[in-house]
């Protein structure tokens, strides 16, 4: 039998957060440019591939985030995949107030979106669609351009797991 609604959860928010924390994720900085030319960037671990054809990715942002109006309305953004040696950049874009880009090297993409120098990989996306779900908005981006840092084989990705940052250890 198909239920029309989900059953009420049998856990609290802390238990849910703890369970989610057991799933290791990569860490990204999502960047865009506001209409006034100012640069906006936020740290996000909610990044995933959606489709190869067309090339689509997704990420999510809390509805209460101060940057929500800019990301919701802009035509483009870039997803920058961070390396383990970029923990300082991760923390800067997660917590710093003011100009998060001060002292951070970047180049502007074809759409004028900042791409962080040294990111393991980057995806320049057209802001294809947005879905309001719970306390977040899910952004689906259609990838127009992407790249991989030249020295990617020598660097490891930054990983977020169980409330902390890590780098992977090879099992092979």
From TrEMBL:
<protein>
    <submittedName>
        <fullName>Flavin reductase</fullName>
        <ecNumber>1.5.1.36</ecNumber>
    </submittedName>
</protein>
<dbReference type="GO" id="GO:0042602">
    <property type="term" value="F:riboflavin reductase (NADPH) activity"/>
</dbReference>
<dbReference type="GO" id="GO:0036382">
    <property type="term" value="F:flavin reductase (NADH) activity"/>
</dbReference>
<dbReference type="Pfam" id="PF01613">
    <property type="entry name" value="Flavin_Reduct"/>
</dbReference>
<comment type="similarity">
    <text>Belongs to the non-flavoprotein flavin reductase family.</text>
</comment>
<dbReference type="InterPro" id="IPR050268">
    <property type="entry name" value="NADH-dep_flavin_reductase"/>
</dbReference>
<keyword id="KW-0560">Oxidoreductase</keyword>
<feature type="domain" description="Flavin reductase like">
    <location>
        <begin position="20"/>
        <end position="167"/>
    </location>
</feature>
<dbReference type="InterPro" id="IPR002563">
    <property type="entry name" value="Flavin_Rdtase-like_dom"/>
</dbReference>
<dbReference type="GO" id="GO:0010181">
    <property type="term" value="F:FMN binding"/>
</dbReference>
<dbReference type="InterPro" id="IPR012349">
    <property type="entry name" value="Split_barrel_FMN-bd"/>
</dbReference>
